Amino acid sequence: MSSDTTTAQEALTFTDLGLSPKVLSAVTDAGYTKPTPIQAGAIPHALLGKDVLGIAQTGTGKTASFVLPMLTRLEKGRARARMPRTLILEPTRELAAQVEENFIKYGKNHKLNIALLIGGVSFDEQDKKLERGADVLIATPGRLLDHRERGKLLLNGVEILVIDEADRMLDMGFIPDIERICEMIPFTRQTLFFSATMPPEITKLTEKFLHAPVRVEVSRAASTATSITQRLVKSGSKPWEKRETLRNLMKAESDGLKNAIIFCNRKVEVSELFRSLLKHDFDAGALHGDMDQRARMQMLANFRDGKLRYLVASDVAARGLDIPDVSHVFNYDVPIHAEDYVHRIGRTGRAGRSGKSFTIATRSDTKYVDAIERLIGTKIEWHDGDLSTVAESAGEDAPRRGRGAPRRAGRKDEDRRDRSERKRDRHAKHDETPDAAREEQPVAEVADIAERRARKDAIRSENDRNKGSANRNEQRGDARPQRDHNRPARHRQEEDDATVGFGDDVPAFMRIVAKV
Ligand code: AMP
């Protein structure tokens, strides 16, 4: 966008964009006074029926940039059974559910049928919604194709197709599914396509499926919001050292720390760190690929409502969280893929608020930090000195304080906890090649920890040893994934089945049956 265009767009109000009165009234009720740059840039073109290529990250208001014009255009016409009028593809269940929330919020003056097709939810309910005729169909690719294959869904009535978070679809291996779906929808459709970054595979996809798109780029690809204070934090490389660094940081930041998401690269680290934080009495929950949809949504709701201060998460599980006022993001691990850094820290400093991000870096992370700095085009400041002061050989057996140093009262328990954690670290198997697909492989650890924790809490509360803390944990118990051992084994199995691996969002390449 030229600076003239940018200045003209900055002066725009929602009424200038061509949205219908019903939509404008809902936007006013939502409290928004000015369109964000992606909204100002995309909405007028989307209303004219043009294809749009929106390059924008989450947190820029991009959801409303397609939801608002869609609502306006949907005011004419009505849905037919099993033939949705519009389709929005999202990479994760959470994102799909958030888009549905947006349709409900901005579509409160419309009578639209919205169907959400995501894994982990029964087909029957979804079938009923499709049968009734959906104006808006929001889906993850795997579940959408399942419905199509069951013959319950016809895509030849789709007038508007939205492909959201395309670069994440690529990371998750969904591109073959997206191509299949695009080929099932009439050529005459309008396509609105969004991606935070434009790797070559995504560019190819847009060349194949978009028709003379209007390109709206609200910030340089993979740029980070200026409202976020970013810092690197030096640490030794052993897990217990990193955990200690994190705890010290959390304590030091405690005053301005309203809530935080703590990102780990691997699922196994999510569960280890979650367990460790609980032991150290931090008010933490975990968001994990193995939790069923209900547990994930509940966990998110508790975090959003302030019942939980810290959320430990992996990139895949946390993708697309819309939590407007997260004050801090901690990267327990430097992300292997530089673009994940942008997505992670984009969880704070949203919608013009300020936020802080701290990335714990060890000597072996240098090349990943360099890649991030190249991508974002800026050097990230060190919080408290760089890695030159960290001993290369700082290992788990290195003494952590001088032999004769005085012990503080109350350290004994903490030391015992640290020792047991270090022992576990020595035995932990570490797979060094994380990726989104592997992250979603089943490990039922978090659920088990939560269950053990709930049991421990129950005993604690029975003994009435610590009334205050027991009450808090009781409240949190709902939010954590728990298995009900009183339920018949068959039901437990069904619950487990629903949550294994990708669930219903299996990418196409994993569905191919090998010929023997
Ligand atoms: P998104 O990028 O769609 O995830 O939106 C990020 C956040 O910005 C959400 O919490 C929206 O509710 C909020 N938002 C969207 N549009 C506006 C706007 N025009 N003014 C202020 N906040 C907005």
Keywords:
516 residues, binds adenosine monophosphate, 7-stranded parallel beta sheet, alpha/beta, disordered C terminus, 44% helix, 12% strand, Rossmann fold
Annotated CATH architecture of the largest domain: 3-Layer(aba) Sandwich
CATH class of the largest domain: Alpha Beta
Mean pLDDT: 77
Distance between the first and last residues' Cα = 54 Å
Level of helix content?
Answer: 40-55%
Number of strands: 14
- Number of structural units classed as domains: 3
Unreliably modeled segments? 393-411, 425-507, 509-516
Bound molecules: adenosine monophosphate
Widest β-sheet, arrangement of strands? 3-4-2-5-6-1-7
Q: What is the CATH superfamily label of the largest domain? A: P-loop containing nucleotide triphosphate hydrolases
Any idea what the radius of gyration is?
A: 24 Å
Q: Based on helices, strands and strand pairing, what is the structural class? A: alpha/beta
Q: What is the helix tally?
A: 21
CATH topology of the largest domain: Rossmann fold
Largest sheet: 7 strands, parallel
Strand content: 5-15%
Shape field:
globular
Task: Characterize the structure shown.
By secondary structure, the protein is an alpha/beta fold. The chain folds into three domains: 215 residues, P-loop containing nucleotide triphosphate hydrolases (Rossmann fold), CATH 3.40.50; 183 residues, Rossmann fold; 59 residues, no CATH class. Helix content is 44%, strand content 12%. The protein has 21 helices and 14 strands. Strand 12, helix 15 and strand 13 form a beta-alpha-beta unit. Helix 3 runs parallel beside helix 4 and helix 4 packs across helix 5. The radius of gyration is 24 Å and the shape is globular. The site of adenosine monophosphate (AMP) has 16 residues, from helix 4.
